[in-house]
Amino acid sequence: MSSDTSQVEEQSHDEENPAAIRVECYAGHRADVVPVRFFIGQRAIEVSEIIDRWLDPAHSYFKLRGDDGGIYILRHDQATDAWEMTLFDSGTRRETRLSST
Known about the structure:
Radius of gyration: 14 Å
Strand content: over 45%
Number of helices: 0
Oligomer: single chain
Structural class: mainly beta
Strand order of the largest sheet: 1-2-3-4-5-6-7
Shape: globular
Distance between the termini: 23 Å
Helix content: under 10%
Low-confidence stretches: 1-13
Number of domains: 1
């Protein structure tokens, strides 16, 4: 990420939706929004790896690894600019570990 083309955007937490999170994003020259840090309450989690990403007509999804070793799937609603965490795997139990991580 080049500092001359980076822009950090921040979306706020929705108090009415417990799955909503606050996300800081990198927006590059193509205007792709990529999460670099997110907050669950006051806890900040740095994105250490984007494992996968995909789109549906209304959302962007990011499967990522946090600096805490957890695997997260974050969903960005493009119409409302809202973020939600749709999945979390702490990785502490082998029998429930997600595949392809």
